[in-house]
Amino acid sequence: MQDLQAVNNWSSQPQCCIADRGNVACEVPKSNHELPIRTTDAWAADSAMTAQKQRAGARSSTVKLDSRSLYESCADVLSREISRGVLQPGQRLASERSLADALGFTRLTVRRALQELAERGVLEPDERRGWQVRGGPVSEPLNALMGFTQMARQRGLVATSRILLLDYREATIDESESLRVAAGAPMLDLSRLRLLDERPTAIERLRMPTSRVRWPPKFDFSGSIYAALESQGVYPSRADAFVEVVDATAADAELLGVVAGRGLLCMNCITTRSDGLPFSLEATKYHPDRYRFRAILEHRAGL
Question: What is the pTM of this model?
Answer without folding.
Answer: 0.55
